[in-house]
Design brief:
Length: 318
Protein backbone atom coordinates (compact mmCIF):
# COMPACT_ATOMS: atom_id res chain seq x y z
CA UNK A 1 0.00 0.00 0.00
CA UNK A 2 2.74 2.60 0.73
CA UNK A 3 4.18 1.98 -2.72
CA UNK A 4 0.78 2.44 -4.35
CA UNK A 5 0.20 5.74 -2.52
CA UNK A 6 3.58 7.03 -3.66
CA UNK A 7 2.72 6.35 -7.30
CA UNK A 8 -0.66 8.03 -6.91
CA UNK A 9 0.99 11.12 -5.43
CA UNK A 10 3.40 11.30 -8.33
CA UNK A 11 0.54 10.94 -10.79
CA UNK A 12 -1.36 13.82 -9.12
CA UNK A 13 1.73 16.03 -9.23
CA UNK A 14 2.19 15.29 -12.92
CA UNK A 15 -1.47 16.05 -13.61
CA UNK A 16 -1.29 19.35 -11.74
CA UNK A 17 1.90 20.33 -13.59
CA UNK A 18 0.05 19.80 -16.88
CA UNK A 19 -3.07 21.66 -15.80
CA UNK A 20 -1.28 24.81 -14.56
CA UNK A 21 0.07 25.91 -18.00
CA UNK A 22 -3.37 25.18 -19.50
CA UNK A 23 -5.00 27.42 -16.87
CA UNK A 24 -2.47 30.19 -17.55
CA UNK A 25 -3.12 30.02 -21.29
CA UNK A 26 -6.88 30.10 -20.69
CA UNK A 27 -6.51 33.15 -18.44
CA UNK A 28 -4.39 34.96 -21.02
CA UNK A 29 -6.98 34.16 -23.69
CA UNK A 30 -9.68 35.75 -21.52
CA UNK A 31 -7.60 38.93 -21.05
CA UNK A 32 -6.71 39.52 -24.69
CA UNK A 33 -9.67 37.86 -26.41
CA UNK A 34 -12.85 39.48 -27.74
CA UNK A 35 -14.84 41.62 -25.30
CA UNK A 36 -18.08 39.92 -24.25
CA UNK A 37 -19.74 41.81 -21.40
CA UNK A 38 -17.49 44.75 -20.56
CA UNK A 39 -14.31 46.49 -21.57
CA UNK A 40 -11.37 45.74 -19.25
CA UNK A 41 -10.21 48.50 -16.96
CA UNK A 42 -7.06 50.46 -17.71
CA UNK A 43 -5.25 48.44 -15.03
CA UNK A 44 -6.35 45.19 -16.69
CA UNK A 45 -5.20 46.49 -20.05
CA UNK A 46 -1.84 47.36 -18.55
CA UNK A 47 -1.48 43.87 -17.06
CA UNK A 48 -2.43 42.32 -20.39
CA UNK A 49 0.23 44.34 -22.17
CA UNK A 50 2.88 43.41 -19.61
CA UNK A 51 1.92 39.74 -19.99
CA UNK A 52 2.21 39.89 -23.76
CA UNK A 53 5.42 41.95 -23.77
CA UNK A 54 3.87 45.30 -24.76
CA UNK A 55 1.61 43.90 -27.47
CA UNK A 56 -0.06 46.57 -29.60
CA UNK A 57 -3.56 47.61 -28.54
CA UNK A 58 -6.06 48.15 -31.35
CA UNK A 59 -9.81 48.79 -31.48
CA UNK A 60 -11.76 45.55 -31.83
CA UNK A 61 -14.58 44.73 -34.21
CA UNK A 62 -17.11 45.84 -31.58
CA UNK A 63 -15.37 49.19 -30.98
CA UNK A 64 -17.30 52.46 -30.96
CA UNK A 65 -18.03 54.56 -34.02
CA UNK A 66 -15.21 57.07 -33.50
CA UNK A 67 -12.59 54.32 -33.14
CA UNK A 68 -13.83 52.46 -36.22
CA UNK A 69 -13.84 55.67 -38.28
CA UNK A 70 -10.61 57.41 -37.20
CA UNK A 71 -8.18 54.52 -36.63
CA UNK A 72 -5.67 54.86 -39.49
CA UNK A 73 -2.27 54.26 -37.85
CA UNK A 74 0.14 55.32 -40.60
CA UNK A 75 2.50 58.31 -40.91
CA UNK A 76 0.21 61.33 -41.15
CA UNK A 77 -2.67 59.28 -39.78
CA UNK A 78 -4.45 58.68 -36.48
CA UNK A 79 -4.12 55.95 -33.85
CA UNK A 80 -7.13 55.22 -31.66
CA UNK A 81 -6.23 53.29 -28.51
CA UNK A 82 -8.91 51.91 -26.13
CA UNK A 83 -8.52 52.94 -22.48
CA UNK A 84 -11.34 51.11 -20.72
CA UNK A 85 -14.42 52.37 -18.87
CA UNK A 86 -13.14 54.12 -15.75
CA UNK A 87 -15.30 56.76 -14.04
CA UNK A 88 -12.86 59.52 -14.99
CA UNK A 89 -10.84 59.78 -18.23
CA UNK A 90 -7.16 58.88 -18.01
CA UNK A 91 -4.46 61.40 -18.92
CA UNK A 92 -2.47 60.38 -22.02
CA UNK A 93 0.69 61.63 -23.72
CA UNK A 94 2.57 60.64 -26.86
CA UNK A 95 6.14 61.75 -27.60
CA UNK A 96 5.85 64.17 -24.69
CA UNK A 97 2.68 65.91 -25.93
CA UNK A 98 -0.78 65.56 -24.33
CA UNK A 99 -3.27 63.50 -26.33
CA UNK A 100 -7.03 63.89 -26.83
CA UNK A 101 -9.17 61.51 -24.74
CA UNK A 102 -12.88 61.23 -25.52
CA UNK A 103 -15.70 58.81 -24.76
CA UNK A 104 -16.76 56.73 -27.76
CA UNK A 105 -20.28 55.65 -28.71
CA UNK A 106 -19.82 52.35 -26.82
CA UNK A 107 -19.04 54.21 -23.56
CA UNK A 108 -15.32 53.43 -23.66
CA UNK A 109 -12.61 56.07 -23.21
CA UNK A 110 -10.28 56.25 -26.20
CA UNK A 111 -7.03 58.09 -26.89
CA UNK A 112 -7.00 59.77 -30.31
CA UNK A 113 -3.35 60.39 -31.23
CA UNK A 114 -2.05 62.17 -34.31
CA UNK A 115 0.98 60.53 -35.96
CA UNK A 116 3.67 62.69 -37.53
CA UNK A 117 4.06 62.45 -41.30
CA UNK A 118 7.74 61.54 -40.77
CA UNK A 119 7.06 58.91 -38.09
CA UNK A 120 8.88 55.60 -38.47
CA UNK A 121 6.86 52.44 -38.99
CA UNK A 122 6.79 50.04 -36.04
CA UNK A 123 5.84 50.02 -32.37
CA UNK A 124 4.92 53.35 -30.70
CA UNK A 125 3.93 53.98 -27.08
CA UNK A 126 1.44 56.09 -25.17
CA UNK A 127 1.99 57.09 -21.55
CA UNK A 128 -1.31 56.67 -19.68
CA UNK A 129 -1.92 58.05 -16.17
CA UNK A 130 -4.97 57.06 -14.17
CA UNK A 131 -5.63 56.80 -10.43
CA UNK A 132 -2.00 57.50 -9.57
CA UNK A 133 -0.75 54.73 -11.86
CA UNK A 134 1.27 55.07 -15.05
CA UNK A 135 0.86 52.50 -17.82
CA UNK A 136 2.39 52.16 -21.28
CA UNK A 137 0.04 51.21 -24.08
CA UNK A 138 1.49 50.39 -27.48
CA UNK A 139 0.18 50.71 -31.01
CA UNK A 140 1.71 49.81 -34.35
CA UNK A 141 2.32 52.34 -37.12
CA UNK A 142 2.22 50.94 -40.64
CA UNK A 143 3.67 52.33 -43.85
CA UNK A 144 2.13 54.55 -46.50
CA UNK A 145 3.51 55.91 -49.76
CA UNK A 146 2.37 59.39 -50.77
CA UNK A 147 2.40 60.67 -54.34
CA UNK A 148 4.44 63.61 -55.69
CA UNK A 149 3.26 66.93 -57.08
CA UNK A 150 5.15 69.43 -59.26
CA UNK A 151 4.02 73.07 -59.13
CA UNK A 152 5.21 75.98 -61.27
CA UNK A 153 5.21 79.35 -59.46
CA UNK A 154 5.64 82.73 -61.13
CA UNK A 155 6.92 84.30 -57.91
CA UNK A 156 10.37 82.75 -57.34
CA UNK A 157 10.53 84.30 -53.85
CA UNK A 158 7.85 81.78 -52.80
CA UNK A 159 10.44 79.09 -53.62
CA UNK A 160 13.65 80.75 -52.38
CA UNK A 161 12.80 83.70 -50.10
CA UNK A 162 15.30 86.53 -49.67
CA UNK A 163 16.78 87.09 -46.16
CA UNK A 164 14.05 89.54 -45.08
CA UNK A 165 11.30 87.24 -46.30
CA UNK A 166 12.97 84.27 -44.64
CA UNK A 167 13.10 86.12 -41.33
CA UNK A 168 9.40 86.97 -41.70
CA UNK A 169 8.63 83.33 -42.39
CA UNK A 170 10.53 82.24 -39.27
CA UNK A 171 8.52 84.62 -37.06
CA UNK A 172 5.25 83.47 -38.61
CA UNK A 173 6.22 79.81 -38.34
CA UNK A 174 7.02 80.18 -34.63
CA UNK A 175 3.62 81.79 -34.03
CA UNK A 176 1.87 78.92 -35.78
CA UNK A 177 3.87 76.23 -33.94
CA UNK A 178 2.86 77.84 -30.64
CA UNK A 179 -0.81 77.68 -31.68
CA UNK A 180 -0.48 74.03 -32.72
CA UNK A 181 1.05 73.17 -29.33
CA UNK A 182 -1.88 74.56 -27.31
CA UNK A 183 -3.90 72.11 -25.25
CA UNK A 184 -7.16 73.28 -23.71
CA UNK A 185 -8.64 70.69 -21.32
CA UNK A 186 -12.15 71.12 -22.73
CA UNK A 187 -13.08 68.39 -25.19
CA UNK A 188 -14.19 69.06 -28.78
CA UNK A 189 -17.88 69.36 -29.66
CA UNK A 190 -17.35 66.74 -32.38
CA UNK A 191 -14.33 64.88 -33.76
CA UNK A 192 -15.98 63.71 -36.98
CA UNK A 193 -15.94 66.95 -38.95
CA UNK A 194 -18.02 68.67 -41.58
CA UNK A 195 -16.17 69.76 -44.72
CA UNK A 196 -15.43 73.49 -44.34
CA UNK A 197 -16.60 74.16 -47.92
CA UNK A 198 -18.79 72.32 -50.38
CA UNK A 199 -16.86 71.32 -53.49
CA UNK A 200 -14.34 68.93 -54.93
CA UNK A 201 -10.96 68.28 -53.36
CA UNK A 202 -7.79 68.72 -55.40
CA UNK A 203 -4.38 68.23 -53.76
CA UNK A 204 -4.62 65.52 -51.08
CA UNK A 205 -2.66 65.36 -47.85
CA UNK A 206 0.94 64.10 -47.79
CA UNK A 207 2.03 64.93 -51.34
CA UNK A 208 5.76 65.34 -51.84
CA UNK A 209 5.87 68.85 -53.29
CA UNK A 210 8.28 70.29 -55.83
CA UNK A 211 8.09 74.04 -56.50
CA UNK A 212 9.84 75.05 -59.73
CA UNK A 213 11.72 71.75 -59.54
CA UNK A 214 12.86 72.16 -55.90
CA UNK A 215 11.51 69.81 -53.22
CA UNK A 216 9.93 71.46 -50.19
CA UNK A 217 7.86 70.27 -47.23
CA UNK A 218 5.17 67.70 -47.93
CA UNK A 219 1.61 68.94 -48.34
CA UNK A 220 0.28 69.15 -44.78
CA UNK A 221 -3.40 69.64 -45.57
CA UNK A 222 -6.26 68.99 -47.94
CA UNK A 223 -7.06 71.43 -50.76
CA UNK A 224 -10.56 72.25 -51.98
CA UNK A 225 -10.77 73.61 -55.54
CA UNK A 226 -13.67 76.02 -55.10
CA UNK A 227 -14.30 79.54 -56.49
CA UNK A 228 -13.06 82.73 -54.90
CA UNK A 229 -15.58 84.05 -52.40
CA UNK A 230 -16.92 80.62 -51.35
CA UNK A 231 -17.96 80.82 -47.64
CA UNK A 232 -15.84 78.76 -45.23
CA UNK A 233 -17.63 77.22 -42.24
CA UNK A 234 -16.21 76.05 -38.93
CA UNK A 235 -16.44 72.22 -38.81
CA UNK A 236 -16.81 72.16 -35.00
CA UNK A 237 -17.09 74.54 -32.04
CA UNK A 238 -13.88 76.26 -31.03
CA UNK A 239 -11.89 79.40 -30.26
CA UNK A 240 -10.06 81.42 -32.92
CA UNK A 241 -6.37 81.53 -31.94
CA UNK A 242 -4.80 83.07 -35.06
CA UNK A 243 -5.95 85.63 -37.57
CA UNK A 244 -3.00 86.52 -39.77
CA UNK A 245 -1.66 87.39 -43.19
CA UNK A 246 1.38 85.19 -43.76
CA UNK A 247 4.10 85.08 -46.42
CA UNK A 248 3.34 81.54 -47.61
CA UNK A 249 -0.17 80.92 -46.24
CA UNK A 250 -1.72 84.28 -47.09
CA UNK A 251 -4.73 85.23 -45.00
CA UNK A 252 -5.06 82.55 -42.35
CA UNK A 253 -7.34 81.46 -39.52
CA UNK A 254 -6.63 78.90 -36.76
CA UNK A 255 -9.41 77.35 -34.65
CA UNK A 256 -8.68 75.51 -31.40
CA UNK A 257 -11.40 72.86 -30.90
CA UNK A 258 -10.01 71.61 -27.57
CA UNK A 259 -7.55 68.96 -26.36
CA UNK A 260 -4.93 69.75 -29.02
CA UNK A 261 -7.42 69.42 -31.89
CA UNK A 262 -6.56 72.38 -34.16
CA UNK A 263 -7.72 73.29 -37.67
CA UNK A 264 -6.15 75.82 -40.04
CA UNK A 265 -7.59 77.61 -43.10
CA UNK A 266 -5.34 79.56 -45.44
CA UNK A 267 -5.14 81.52 -48.75
CA UNK A 268 -8.37 83.26 -47.70
CA UNK A 269 -9.68 86.27 -49.62
CA UNK A 270 -11.35 87.72 -46.51
CA UNK A 271 -11.72 86.85 -42.82
CA UNK A 272 -14.93 87.21 -40.80
CA UNK A 273 -13.67 86.41 -37.27
CA UNK A 274 -11.29 87.88 -34.70
CA UNK A 275 -8.63 86.33 -32.49
CA UNK A 276 -10.17 85.06 -29.26
CA UNK A 277 -13.65 84.77 -30.74
CA UNK A 278 -15.70 81.68 -29.95
CA UNK A 279 -17.25 80.04 -33.01
CA UNK A 280 -19.91 77.39 -33.37
CA UNK A 281 -20.10 74.54 -35.83
CA UNK A 282 -21.35 75.98 -39.13
CA UNK A 283 -20.32 79.61 -38.47
CA UNK A 284 -18.76 81.38 -41.47
CA UNK A 285 -15.15 82.33 -40.67
CA UNK A 286 -14.10 83.77 -44.05
CA UNK A 287 -14.13 83.33 -47.81
CA UNK A 288 -11.92 81.39 -50.19
CA UNK A 289 -9.17 83.28 -52.00
CA UNK A 290 -5.71 82.95 -53.55
CA UNK A 291 -3.48 84.90 -51.14
CA UNK A 292 0.06 83.80 -50.26
CA UNK A 293 1.74 80.97 -52.18
CA UNK A 294 -1.17 79.93 -54.38
CA UNK A 295 -1.60 79.40 -58.11
CA UNK A 296 -5.35 80.08 -57.99
CA UNK A 297 -8.37 80.25 -55.67
CA UNK A 298 -8.64 77.32 -53.30
CA UNK A 299 -8.91 76.49 -49.60
CA UNK A 300 -5.99 74.78 -47.91
CA UNK A 301 -7.35 73.09 -44.78
CA UNK A 302 -5.29 71.21 -42.28
CA UNK A 303 -5.94 69.32 -39.06
CA UNK A 304 -3.50 68.96 -36.18
CA UNK A 305 -3.60 66.54 -33.25
CA UNK A 306 -1.10 66.69 -30.36
CA UNK A 307 1.10 68.95 -32.50
CA UNK A 308 1.17 66.66 -35.55
CA UNK A 309 -0.43 67.50 -38.89
CA UNK A 310 -2.67 64.63 -39.96
CA UNK A 311 -4.84 63.80 -42.96
CA UNK A 312 -8.08 65.84 -42.78
CA UNK A 313 -9.86 63.31 -45.00
CA UNK A 314 -9.83 60.86 -42.08
CA UNK A 315 -12.10 63.20 -40.10
CA UNK A 316 -14.53 63.41 -43.01
CA UNK A 317 -14.91 59.63 -42.90
CA UNK A 318 -13.01 59.14 -46.16
Amino acid sequence: MPVVLTHMSLAKKRLRSRLVPIAVVALAACLVGPRVDATPSLQALGKTIATTQAAAVTPGAAAGYIARTLHHPVPGGVAVVPLGRSAQPPSVSYDGAPVMVVKDSDGEWIAVAGIDLKAAAGRHELQVRSGGQVQKLSFDVGTKEYASQHIKLKNQSHVTPNPDQLERYRREHAEQMEAYARFRPVGPSNVLLDAPVKGRTSSPFGLRRFFNGEERNAHSGLDFAVPKGTPIQAPANGVVTIVGDYFFNGRTVFIDHGQGFITMYCHLDSISVQKGQEVKRGDVIGKVGATGRATGPHLHWNVSLNGNRVDPAIFLGK
